[in-house]
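Batch manifest, entry 17 of 40.
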Amino acid sequence: MNINKSILEKNTLPNVGYTYNVLVVEDDDVSYLLLSEILSSYPLKLIRANDGEEAVNYFNQDQSNINLVLMDIKLPKINGYDATQRIKEINPSIPVIAVTAYAHSQGIIDCYNSGCDDFIAKPFDINKIIRLIENHLVLRN
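Output type: structure tokens
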């Protein structure tokens, strides 16, 4: 997979040599494996939650260990909107990027209204998701 590595490859993120922890909230194995493959060459450790409830519980227990959240919206138990709201109640400054197949205008508005900092539609542009991750890690650190 040939991907432009941009600032993550050039080590221009703060804390060079540091691995950033990304909570990936995704119930679909294929989508998770795709993200995992795309991001495998970057200094990112992916931590998976299979549903919104698991994500909120994990974040509540270990929020200081998470640098960014990639949030699917259509999830079992607690949907991505509600999970994002709960995570933002715990830590309003954690960046949350919605990653969803529901890219209609109301869905995008709902993502932002729930507290998501950014949005990307599935199937996503690889370079765009990398840029979004980079931007939010740079802004946070």
